[in-house]
Structures are given as C-alpha cells and as structure tokens.
C-alpha cells in the first residue's frame, strides 16, 4: 500500500526528482498531507515546540513521539513515515536505543527513524540499520544539541566546519543511513554534500540543491499563535489568524444568541443524527 520506499528514493535522486517531506503530528493533518501528495511525513520532535508548547525539543519523550506517530500512521496509510528519536533516547546502551527504535516502529507504525548527529553517532546508525530499520541522519543545526551549539545558527560557514559536515555526511552514508536531513546549512556546503553522496539529502534552510525539502507543518501554514517569519520558510496560508478570527466569531455569535440558529435545532420529528462522533 505504501507508495514510496528507500530504494525508490535513491532512484529519485538519480532521476533528479525532488523529494517532498512535511512534518505531521496528528490524524487530520497527516491525512490531508497524504491527499495533497507529500512523499514522506516526519513526526519531528519539533512536536515539542509547535504542538506541545515547549521552547525547545529537549523535553520531548519517546512516549510523545510514539503517541503522535500512531495518529499520523492512522491518517496517512499509504505514505512513508519517519519518526524522530528524541533527546537522549539513543545515547545509552544499545539495548535501550533498540528498545526505543522498536517502539517507534511497532507501536508508532513508523517505516524509519531519524536521529541527530554525525560521525559520533555513526556506530549507532549502523546498529539500528543492522536490525532492519531504515535510518535518516540529521546534521547541520541539530536542535537537540542547542545548549552545546549556543543557539540556532547557520552551519558550515568556515572551511573547518564545512569539512566536518561533509565528513559527517559521508560517515552517515557509510553507516547505512538512507537519507540525511541538512538543517540550516549554507547552500554551498549542502550542494557539495548532495553531489558527493549517493543517498538523498533533505534540506531545511539548506538551499536549492538538496535532493528534497522538508518544512514544519505549522510553519508552512503559519499555524501558531505567535508566528515569526523565518528566512528559510515559505508560508502558504495564515491558518493561525483564520483560527483566531473564526473562534472569535463563534464566541460573539453565542454571546449575541445568533448561534444556534433555527437550522441547528431539533424537533420531535427528528430521529438519528448523522455525522456524530463514536
Ligand atoms: O523535528 C523536526 O521537525 C525536524 C525537521 C525540522 C527536519 O527534525
Ligand atoms: Na527533529
């Protein structure tokens, strides 16, 4: 049933067909994204910021990601689904890492997992891949290490940093990753990495030459109470403003007794009610 797989993705890179990736956190958004033709859905730990109201991804737990992955999987039954391994869920023992991976796959119904890091995480990537689970790498700005990086800053700006990113990307490919997310990387460095790897790169704030693009659902739609423009985001709607004004109309209608209207009420002639929950 699933439309895409990791073999087809590699072929898409060869054929220069861009890979479209979107984050998703629940059933309706996942289903709408599938109907809109997205290639891959990512249950990102950006969940923490955009859905759970934290100010970083660090508080997000494996339980959070499992719960939301399940909902996404119910909504998008024909789409390739990747789930993030959250902060500190892949840095302990191999047993603990594989237990968390198992939960994302078996309880969440993901098709692959994503984790942050370069060379230092390559052995972990290899272990997960050897267990039969496809892995997406993630380098550049890695939000789980924000306290170490000292802020959300562009990566790959000097020669040393560029060299490190290219080596990290190669180490991840070597370890068996089937794709790599490049976050907030200069266009030049992302372009070099993309041309030197045989696996697809998926960019976010990483320029025009990546094999695919990923964007956060809530950014694409401005679905946030306090959305602030980001250079690397293109917004396609202002859903936050629409939600706020729609709810305010509802509040005002009830206050003014304009809702419910005559068309919304029941009389003794009515029977079964359609389109209810349950
Ligand atoms: O958590 C997330 O949404 C991500 C993407 C930004 C790649 O990791
Ligand atoms: Na993430």
How would you characterize the overall build of this protein?
The chain starts with 5 loop residues before the first helix and ends in a 23-residue tail after the last helix. With about 280 residues, it is an alpha/beta fold. It has a single domain (about 5-240), classed as Phosphoenolpyruvate-binding domains (TIM Barrel, Alpha-Beta Barrel), CATH 3.20.20. It has eleven helices and eight strands. Helix 6 links the parallel strand 4 and strand 5 (about 135-140). The chain has an eight-stranded parallel barrel, surrounded by seven helices. It binds 3-methyl-2-oxobutanoic acid and sodium ion (NA).
What's this, in brief?
By secondary structure, this protein is of the alpha/beta class. It contains eleven helices and eight strands. Strand 6, helix 9 and strand 7 form a beta-alpha-beta unit.
CATH topology call: TIM Barrel
Report the mean per-residue pLDDT as an integer.
96
Strand order of the largest sheet: 1-2-3-4-5-6-7-8
Find the count of extended strands (DSSP E, 2+ residues).
Answer: 8
In the predicted model, the low-confidence regions spanning at least 5 consecutive residues are none
Helix content, binned percent: 25-40%
Number of domains: 1
- Number of helix segments? 11
The value of Rg in angstroms is 21 Å
Terminal CA distance: 27 Å
CATH level-two architecture: Alpha-Beta Barrel
Look at the helices and sheets and give the structural class.
alpha/beta
Largest beta sheet, briefly?
Answer: 8 strands, parallel, barrel
List cofactors, ions and other ligands.
3-methyl-2-oxobutanoic acid, sodium ion
User: CATH superfamily assignment?
Assistant: Phosphoenolpyruvate-binding domains
What is the 3D form?
globular
| Strand portion | 5-15%
């Amino acid at each position: 049933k699933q439309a895409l797989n990791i073999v087809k993705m590699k072929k898409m890179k060869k054929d220069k067909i861009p890979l479209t990736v979107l984050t998703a956190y629940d059933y309706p958004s996942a289903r709408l994204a599938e109907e809109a033709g997205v290639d891959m859905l990512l249950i990102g730990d950006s969940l923490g910021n955009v859905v759970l109201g934290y100010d970083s991804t660090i508080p997000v737990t494996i339980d959070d990601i499992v719960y939301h992955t399940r909902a996404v999987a119910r909504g998008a039954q024909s789409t390739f689904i990747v789930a993030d391994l959250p902060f500190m869920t892949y840095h302990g023992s191999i047993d603990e890492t594989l237990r968390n991976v198992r939960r994302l796959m078996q309880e969440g119904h993901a098709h692959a997992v994503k984790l942050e890091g370069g060379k230092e995480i390559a052995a972990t990537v290899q272990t997960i891949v050897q267990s039969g689970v496809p892995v997406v790498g993630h380098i550049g700005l890695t939000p789980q290490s924000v306290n170490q990086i000292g802020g959300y800053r562009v990566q790959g700006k000097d020669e040393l940093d560029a060299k490190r990113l290219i080596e990290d990307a190669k180490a991840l490919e070597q370890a068996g990753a089937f794709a790599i997310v490049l976050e907030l990387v200069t266009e030049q460095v992302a372009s070099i990495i993309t041309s030197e790897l045989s696996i697809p790169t998926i960019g976010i704030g990483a320029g025009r030459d990546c094999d695919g693009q990923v964007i956060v659902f809530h950014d694409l739609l401005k679905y946030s109470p306090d959305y602030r423009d980001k250079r690397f985001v293109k917004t396609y709607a202002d859903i936050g403003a629409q939600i706020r004004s729609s709810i305010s109309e509802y509040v005002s209608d009830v206050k003014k007794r304009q809702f419910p209207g005559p068309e919304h009420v029941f009389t003794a002639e009515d029977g079964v009610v359609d389109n209810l929950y349950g």
